């Protein structure tokens, strides 16, 4: 979203990848999902295993702040994969398995977009309805591609909170990493 001349919120219209020939016959132009701009902005020249660790620690720090005021504390899981290598995974005590992390990872790897992007597009066009029925994927926020050196080479996934909160934790952590990269 961006602000128009009078300060009103305006959605940018753009062609959405994968919309051509959509079975529902919707026009190929639709408002660009907000997550698409994040995917363009949060790209890295490098992403080391240490960067993965720092990203995970930042996610845990942000999670701690978010849970500080809540009576019921939900646990989260974090999974970071780069070049096909699992470089970080952690499940809090209240988490029993990593199935949602893997489903979210599969979604990013299959479609090349954040799982939130897939959810946003599906909310508007129903393009990914059939994917929702496939237990290997998750059409919800909580996994974000790692674009390193211009290529998608990995992803960060969080699961345990509301899907938009999982997405938010990842984005905030990657924004801080991006700021550090720019400052070097």
From TrEMBL:
InterPro entries recorded: PduO/GlcC-like, PduO/GlcC-like_sf, YBR137W-like
Top-rank lineage group of the source organism: Bacteria
Protein name (Swiss-Prot/TrEMBL): Heme-binding protein
Organism from which the protein derives: Candidatus Lachnoclostridium stercorigallinarum
Phylogenetic placement of the source organism: Bacteria, Bacillati, Bacillota, Clostridia, Lachnospirales
